[in-house]
Design brief:
This protein is α+β, with helices and mostly antiparallel strands. Helices cover 21% and strands 29% of the residues. β3 and β4 form a beta hairpin.
Length: 104
Amino acid sequence: MKKVKITVMKTARYDDLIERYENPITDACDMREGQVFVANGWRKPDGFCGSAWESMSAFVMTLSCGGEDIYDGWMKNNKSAMISCNDGFRPVSFLIEATDEDAD
Protein backbone atom coordinates (compact mmCIF):
# COMPACT_ATOMS: atom_id res chain seq x y z
CA MET A 1 0.00 0.00 0.00
CA LYS A 2 1.05 3.59 -0.67
CA LYS A 3 0.37 6.76 1.25
CA VAL A 4 -2.16 9.11 -0.33
CA LYS A 5 -1.86 12.90 -0.19
CA ILE A 6 -5.15 14.77 0.31
CA THR A 7 -5.14 18.49 -0.48
CA VAL A 8 -8.04 20.86 0.23
CA MET A 9 -8.47 22.62 -3.11
CA LYS A 10 -11.68 24.65 -2.71
CA THR A 11 -14.19 25.39 0.00
CA ALA A 12 -17.62 26.87 -0.49
CA ARG A 13 -20.34 28.10 1.82
CA TYR A 14 -23.97 28.56 0.82
CA ASP A 15 -25.36 31.00 3.38
CA ASP A 16 -28.77 31.14 1.68
CA LEU A 17 -29.21 27.37 2.09
CA ILE A 18 -27.82 27.43 5.63
CA GLU A 19 -30.27 30.20 6.61
CA ARG A 20 -33.23 28.44 5.04
CA TYR A 21 -32.65 24.79 5.94
CA GLU A 22 -29.94 24.16 8.52
CA ASN A 23 -30.41 24.13 12.26
CA PRO A 24 -27.72 26.20 14.01
CA ILE A 25 -24.59 24.17 14.70
CA THR A 26 -21.47 25.02 16.63
CA ASP A 27 -18.95 22.67 15.00
CA ALA A 28 -19.11 23.42 11.28
CA CYS A 29 -16.43 22.40 8.81
CA ASP A 30 -13.03 23.96 9.48
CA MET A 31 -11.15 22.80 6.38
CA ARG A 32 -8.93 25.47 4.81
CA GLU A 33 -7.80 25.73 1.19
CA GLY A 34 -4.24 24.50 0.85
CA GLN A 35 -4.45 22.25 3.90
CA VAL A 36 -2.73 18.90 3.31
CA PHE A 37 -3.36 15.54 4.95
CA VAL A 38 -1.68 12.19 4.32
CA ALA A 39 -3.66 8.97 4.51
CA ASN A 40 -1.51 6.06 5.62
CA GLY A 41 -3.01 3.46 3.35
CA TRP A 42 -6.68 3.04 4.22
CA ARG A 43 -6.52 4.91 7.57
CA LYS A 44 -8.24 8.28 7.98
CA PRO A 45 -5.69 11.00 8.75
CA ASP A 46 -5.77 12.52 12.25
CA GLY A 47 -7.93 15.63 12.36
CA PHE A 48 -9.66 14.84 9.08
CA CYS A 49 -13.44 15.31 8.81
CA GLY A 50 -15.27 12.00 9.25
CA SER A 51 -18.02 12.91 6.80
CA ALA A 52 -15.52 13.92 4.12
CA TRP A 53 -13.62 10.68 4.73
CA GLU A 54 -16.79 8.67 4.12
CA SER A 55 -17.13 10.45 0.75
CA MET A 56 -13.61 9.58 -0.39
CA SER A 57 -12.30 6.56 1.51
CA ALA A 58 -13.04 4.10 -1.32
CA PHE A 59 -11.08 6.29 -3.76
CA VAL A 60 -8.19 6.63 -1.30
CA MET A 61 -8.14 2.85 -0.84
CA THR A 62 -8.10 2.31 -4.62
CA LEU A 63 -5.16 4.68 -5.12
CA SER A 64 -3.34 3.32 -2.07
CA CYS A 65 -3.55 -0.20 -3.49
CA GLY A 66 -2.14 0.83 -6.86
CA GLY A 67 -5.37 1.52 -8.72
CA GLU A 68 -5.19 4.08 -11.49
CA ASP A 69 -7.38 5.99 -13.92
CA ILE A 70 -10.41 6.03 -11.63
CA TYR A 71 -12.32 8.29 -14.02
CA ASP A 72 -11.36 6.66 -17.35
CA GLY A 73 -9.04 9.37 -18.63
CA TRP A 74 -10.65 12.36 -16.93
CA MET A 75 -7.69 13.23 -14.69
CA LYS A 76 -4.37 14.37 -16.19
CA ASN A 77 -2.57 12.40 -13.47
CA ASN A 78 -4.06 8.89 -13.57
CA LYS A 79 -2.94 8.29 -9.96
CA SER A 80 -5.24 11.03 -8.66
CA ALA A 81 -8.89 12.01 -8.29
CA MET A 82 -10.87 15.14 -7.47
CA ILE A 83 -13.44 14.34 -4.79
CA SER A 84 -15.96 16.52 -2.96
CA CYS A 85 -17.46 15.90 0.44
CA ASN A 86 -21.20 15.43 0.68
CA ASP A 87 -21.97 18.56 2.75
CA GLY A 88 -24.56 20.46 0.73
CA PHE A 89 -24.11 23.59 2.86
CA ARG A 90 -20.28 23.77 2.94
CA PRO A 91 -18.89 21.54 0.17
CA VAL A 92 -15.14 21.01 0.05
CA SER A 93 -13.21 19.76 -2.99
CA PHE A 94 -10.18 17.58 -2.39
CA LEU A 95 -7.39 16.45 -4.71
CA ILE A 96 -6.25 12.97 -3.72
CA GLU A 97 -2.96 11.67 -5.11
CA ALA A 98 -1.11 8.40 -4.65
CA THR A 99 2.47 8.92 -3.51
CA ASP A 100 5.51 6.73 -4.02
CA GLU A 101 5.90 6.41 -0.25
CA ASP A 102 4.88 3.11 1.31
CA ALA A 103 2.24 3.16 4.05
CA ASP A 104 3.35 2.09 7.51
